[in-house]
Amino acid sequence: MKNLQVAVTDYGFPNLDQEKNILTPLGFEFVTGQCKTGAEVAELCRDADAILTQWAPVTADAIEELNNCKIIVRYGIGVDNVDVEAAKRKGIPVVNIPDYAVQEVADHTLSLLLSIVRKIPQVIEQVRSGVWEIAPCRPIMGLQNKVIGVAGFGNISKAVVKRAQAFGLAAIGYDPFVEEGVFKQLGVEKVDWQTLFSRSDILSVHLPLTEQTKHILGADAFRLMKKTSFLVNTSRGGTIDTAALIDALTGGEIAGAALDVLEHEPISPESPLLRMDHCIVTSHCAWYSENALLRLQEYAALEIKRLFTGESPLHVVNGVGK
Questions:
Q1: 284 catalytic, yes or no?
Q2: Burial of 309 (0-12, 13-18, 19+ CB in 10 A)
Q3: Which residues contact 231 (CB under 8 A, 6 or more apart)?
Q4: What's the pLDDT band for 78 if we cut at 50, 70, 90?
Q5: For site-directed labelling of 312, which of 61, 135, 189, 274 has its Cα 20 to 30 A away?
Q6: Using CA atoms, how far apart are residues 152 and 150, in angstroms rounded to an integer?
Q7: Which candidate, 277, 287, 190, 200, places its Cα nearest to that of 235?
Q8: Residues 243-300: tens digit of each pLDDT
Q9: Kindly report the CA angle at 86 between 81 and 87, in degrees rounded to 5?
Q10: Residues 284, 295, 306, 315: which is the catalytic one?
Q11: Which entry of 64, 125, 179, 265 is annotated as an active-site residue?
């Protein structure tokens, strides 16, 4: 009887000990790569029974080449590197891991929010250069009774709202897939898309990247925002039209932006965003803590274990097997 095979298309972890501890006792052998193209994915994964993938492009052509695959698991929340419809046509469930770093991303969101509103980087730079002011970088907005608006109302968004409310912020939110009662339970007012932009003093983005959400935050959206408002994005960079954001920041349509995700990563050293005092960029690291890293690997392997021990995966995103 041949062993089962799990193919790991690519990974940035120090090792795969977590996955091996869970799957090797089930008879899995590991094949690993650092695939950059769909062709490389197809070559590595052709005979795999299960696939773990982080950033590699699991394209429709690659999926068509799969002979034995029963499940594709994405290390992370977004699945935009996997052609989920192609997998669905082939009857392969695509699974994500939405719950491994909820608290870390929420913490990072609030860190960015506080840094951009309180102008922490600018103040630090002033102090380092010998400028000591007890009311620096004026004006700085107080948070009490200001409004945080959340675009999307999933687990991370809810965790962000809970933290923001502790700072005295009122919360509004938009998510057409969530009932108004769910918003009310957390003290959040459900609003429409236009109201979200026009009322928010801080807009925090928590959207997946889909055909519908790509560039959903563009010139029209920024024109609706207050000139004193701030934008924070820790979800998917492609939800924001980068050129439109640069124009909005340059033209003073919004007061600032704090971004952990970019439309194109890594960000170009020549990007105007890196030369703006009122823009903070971090390196898609909101998810990271050592604990979250281990949880991500463990939870991904457990999804494969569930399927191959007769259970259903917890987080199928393309409806296969539900």
A1: yes
A2: exposed
A3: 202, 203, 205, 217, 225, 240, 245, 254, 256, 257, 258, 259
A4: confident
A5: 61
A6: 6
A7: 287
A8: 999 999 999 999 999 999 999 999 999 999 999 999 999 999 999 999 999 999 999 9
A9: 80
A10: 284
A11: 265
CATH class name, domain 4-100+290-308: alpha beta
What is the Cα–Cα distance from 80 to 269, expressed in whole angstroms? 25
Of the listed 236, 253, 263, 303, which one is catalytic? Answer: 236
What percent of the chain is modeled with pLDDT above 90?
97
User: Among this protein's residues, is 236 annotated catalytic?
Assistant: yes
- Beta bridge mates, 151: 174, 205
Distances (CA, A) of 294 to 19, 31, 192, 291: 10, 20, 38, 5
pLDDT at 136 over 90: yes
Please report, for residues 117, 188, 315, the alpha-carbon distance to residue 141 in angstroms, rounded to integers and kept in the order given.
6, 22, 40
Instruction: Please name the helix (run of DSSP H) or strand (run of DSSP E) that holds residue 259, with its range, or none.
Output: strand 256-259
Q: Are 87 and 63 in contact (CB under 8 A)?
A: yes
Domain 102-281 matching CATH 2.60.40.1640: the answer reads: no
What are the phi and psi torsion angles at 124 (to 5°)? Answer: -60, -45
For the chain, count helices (H), then strands (E). Answer: 12, 12
**264 noted as active-site residue:** no
Fold: same for 4-100+290-308 and 102-281? yes
Q: How large is the average pLDDT for residues 165-176?
A: 98
Residue with token string 């033209």: 251
Which secondary-structure segment (H or E) carries 171? strand 170-174
Tell me the domain boundaries of the chain.
Answer: 4-100+290-308, 102-281
